[in-house]
Amino acid sequence: MSSLRKIDVVTPLLGEKRGQMPVKYCASAFAPSNIALCKYWGKRNEELNLPITPSLSISLGKLGTTTSVCLSPEPRDIVTLNNREMPATTKFAKALATFLDLFRPSPTVFFRVDTQNTVPTAAGMASSASGFAALVLALDDLFGWALSTKNLSILARLGSGSACRSVLRGFVEWNAGADEDGLDSYAEQVKGTWPDLRLGVLRLSELEKEISSRQAMKCTRLTSSLYEAWPIKVSHDIALIKESIETRDFELLGRTAESNALAMHATGLAAWPPVLFWLPESVATMRKIWALRKEGLPLYFTMDAGPNIKMLFTADQLDAITTEFPAVEIVEPFSS
Ligand code: PMV
Known about the structure:
22% strand; 4-stranded antiparallel sheet; alpha+beta; binds (3R)-3-hydroxy-3-methyl-5-(phosphonooxy)pentanoic acid
């Protein structure tokens, strides 16, 4: 395994821009959450968040993170989350400070980072993805780097793997890449829009999850006998999802995304110790979706490393969906 550290990637990527002072006092940016239709599940490099397979996601419109980064008025980093100051000892503040270390012009430069999430933090709703993407976009503006989308995606990946997909909108593919330094592992937009595509987010639990996606995918990759089938499943599913986008075949998109998510969760069940994110409510919701589908409702779902369910359907089914799931939060991925 490569011994490259994150800083070994950041230094050449920023070149002479690294070490320069910010060009403004404050900058702010928004990045959307994203939901993978074909999941990222397993790293070939833990330090650089390099994946074993490609993945393909859709962004969540207005749901995501707005982050503002300023030079700190005090000789310490100040971190707030949804208007609450986070003590330096919290996991959240520590993760940010470690990431900011990669970009400090000197150890005596500190930042104030204000993060506003419209998704629940660490409840399987991909807030770390939009969080690191928004932070990188804000830092790019603060320092006046004017980096390409490719390089912004690489920097966001160093914060959290799936964050590399949140610097873009719509359908986004993350190329796995093969290089040791990961400079070929970044996200790109997949051509095509789908204006009447809808996501329905069911927040079944806002509790912090028991196991992080990082731990879960590591345990699965190392111990699950089903993991060796995963890269084969991904290469088929990515091709099918791209085909469904090109031909606007909703049934193909829904079926592939749902089967991909279930296969990901199945690899976890065969791991040791077993990895299971589902709550009784998750299973009940899946069964309800399957029953509705049997009755003719074109409705599919996907799930990430948490108990919440994200449904996929088209705008013409909106009334039926809101009747069946009154608490659903509707997302229009392609609304401007
Ligand atoms: O980027 P991370 O480390 O939060 O991992 C995300 C993993 C999944 O959400 C389960 C899948 C994905 O592709 O987003």
